[in-house]
Structure formats: C-alpha cells, structure tokens
Amino acid sequence: MPERLEGGEKTVLVQLDFGEGDADERLDEFRLLAASAGAVPLAVVGGRRERPDAALFAGKGKVAEIAEAVRECSATLVLFNHELSAAQQRNLEKALECRVVDRSSLILDIFAQRAISHEGKLQVELAQLQHLATRLVRGWTHLERQKGGIGLRGPGETQLETDRRLLGKRVKVLKERLAQLERQRAVRRRARSRREVLAVSLVGYTNAGKSTLFNALTKAGAYAADQLFATLDTTSRRLWLEGAGQVVLSDTVGFIRDLPHTLVAAFHATLEETASADLLLHVVDAVSRDREAQIAAVNKVLEEIGAAGVPQILVWNKVDAMAGSPAIERDAYGRIFRVRVSARTGAGLGLLRQALAEAAQAGSAAPVIDAA
Fold it and tell me: What is the pTM of this model?
C-alpha cells in the first residue's frame, strides 16, 4: 500500500512539459493536490522534454537539478506530476536519496485520507492494492526465477509468491464485500425506479463546488471544503420541486484528469450511481482558466463508467466571482443546456430548480452537452 504522506512534509514538486499544453493550469492543480495531501511544497522543478527517459523519467541533468533542490530545501519527498514506472521510481529514489511519489500514488493517498464510510475505505484499499500489485511484480524481478548459485535459490521466489498470494487473497475479499454492497445499492435503485422518482446526480471536476451546491439545494450539511476530493462517499437526499414533485439528488466524488484506472475500477459501485441516473448536473467552476479541459476530463470519465449517454445540464458555478449574472441558457430548440448560478451566495438556485422541474416534467429529455 502506498506510504502515507505526513502533514507538513518538506516537498519538491516536479512537472515536465511534454507538449501537452496548459502547463500553468496543470501546475496550479498539482500544487493543490500536494497541499490536499498535507505536503509543504518548497520548490518546483520544471523543464521540457520530447519524451520521458526510460530509466529516470527526467534525464540525468534534470535529476541532478532536482537533487540540488532537495538538498537546498532539506526535502524528504519529491512529488512527480506524472505516472512513473516502478523501475523509474526506484532509480529516482536511489539518485535523490529520498522518497519519490508519482501522481497516481498521490491521488490514492488523498483518497485514503478522505475515506470515511466503510464502503469508501474498502474502495480505497482495493485501489491501493491493485496499484501495488503491478509494482510488486516488477519490484521483485531481481529475486524472481534466479538461475543457480548458492544462496540464490528459493527464498526470493518464495517471498514473491507469498506476497502475491496474500495480496491476491485480500483483493478477492475486498471485491466480494464491495460486490455485496453494490447488490444492496442496486436493490435501492430498483425500489426508487418503481416509485418513478427522478434520479439526479451532481458530477464535475474536483473542487468545482458540487457539495456546496448540494447543501444549498437540500440543506443536507454534507462536508464541503476548498480542497480536492473533499467528497468521496455518495450522499443522496430528496428534493421537492414545485410542479414536478420529488426527485432524488446525489452528490458524488469529483473527477480529475488522469484519474488512476485502479481508482475508477475500485469506485465502480459508487460511480454506477452516476451511470444509472436519469439526469446529470455537470457542475463547472466558471472562473477556472482551465474549465474547458476540466469539462472534457469529466466527460472522459463519464464515458469510462458508461454514463456518456445520460442527459446532462451544465451548471456554471461561481457566477458571483465573474462578470455575469444568474441565468438559464437554451439552445436553438428551446431546451435548457446551461444554468449560471452561485452555490455560495444562492444566486440562481431558483432558476436551477426551475430547470430541474422542467427536465422532470419532460421525462428527463434534457440534451447531452458536447464538451467541445
């Protein structure tokens, strides 16, 4: 399981530009991720490369620069805003003489800190073990299937096999427990469907304001904070809409670009709540410079979990912080495709309720928004 990051740990951040664009936005997000994990970034090392170095990811010259930053800051941790192979991580730790954590492990650690419910903790543990499994196999290759030699037969291979078996058994137990919880969730969904209650899920990029909006609409008191992945567990509440009756509104985990696949797989049961919804309210941080890329990242995850075909309405949040006013925007056919609101001040919430009621009355015939 990835090692827990300790609060206040002195950290050097590394982000290299491979020509993807949006480097400043990615770095801002990376700083937020580091802070959310409890790290204290003291230096940032950047640079441009055509492709990652096979052995060190960053290349010898850049690794020497990182090592200098580590020494100057007395850092004990280096965070990479990239996916590292097990071999690259080992080589970097040897060269830098400190712990190295990549983006996937960082996100997994934040999820481990945020998990509160029994199901959330099971999902995070499963994701961590599945992430570790790939590194276990590669990490022990120096001991696996040794050919001959006194003292080189047996123990290494036995230890590897033992670790694999123990890890496999635990993964199996976790999957069985989560499958049971998933069946229970499916029973509740069928009961709700029989009562013909419209199911609405809030989705969006992490820290877009979903939980704040959820609380403003339902008075639920769900945890909301200005940090990444404040919400892990799905929370559902009934919401009364004038002219449409009851709907069930669910707050879900936020998405992020390059979300680890093990995390998506482990949170399948929770995310299935989104895929089975009748309507998605896609909450967007309207003041973010990176909002279009964030919308695309959310839609990519929705596609991964089978929710791409669920009708959605864009909710342009934080309108109080931009030059605009609350409004309902319609397409050429008169259908609602975007609502501008402020979850913090409550401005435009009446318009959002109106949009939800209209969607409920129309049998959830809201359009699917193209992220382009």
Answer: 0.75
